[in-house]
């Protein structure tokens, strides 16, 4: 048998545009991304450590390590229950409204168009960030997250 040879000079390699539904699915991982960011590719908190913190303050229900791992890979088909969202918000140390919004974006194809429920200072800050370039936004995000990790000194 003779091997088939590809003539790369004559080959037409053109990236076909992705179908809209696939692009939408790739972009719909807001909640999953929040989980991945905590783990940071194994450099941050482990999924077990996160699961230990993911306890609903109202019911005591807990999000398991296995569930968080599936959520991180966008392998959970249905939206988390309200109790599970409260547990995840507690574990992520983020406001419940932020986690709920991420879940709505991921599972309900929700797109926020306003900043309801936030005070004027927060809306002004977000408006300024919205006008910044990608590099500036990354820098501000890193500063905000770093400030959040610093524990205030006790007097």
Folded structure, characterized:
The longest helix is centred in the C-terminal third of the chain and has 16 residues, at 134-149. It is built from eight helices and no strands. It is 54% helix and 0% strand. It is mostly helical and 155 residues long.
Compile the SSE list and pairings:
Layout: H1 20-27, H2 30-39, H3 47-53, H4 65-72, H5 82-92, H6 96-108, H7 120-130, H8 134-149
Strand content: under 5%
Going by helix content, strand content and strand pairing, the class is mainly alpha
Instruction: Indicate the radius of gyration in whole angstroms.
Output: 21 Å
- Tally of contiguous helical segments: 8
Oligomer: single chain
β-strand number: 0
Offer a quick outline of the entry:
Helices cover 54% and strands 0% of the residues. The protein is mainly alpha-helical and 155 residues long.
Key traits:
54% helix, 0% strand, mainly alpha, disordered N terminus, globular, 155 residues, 8 helices, single chain
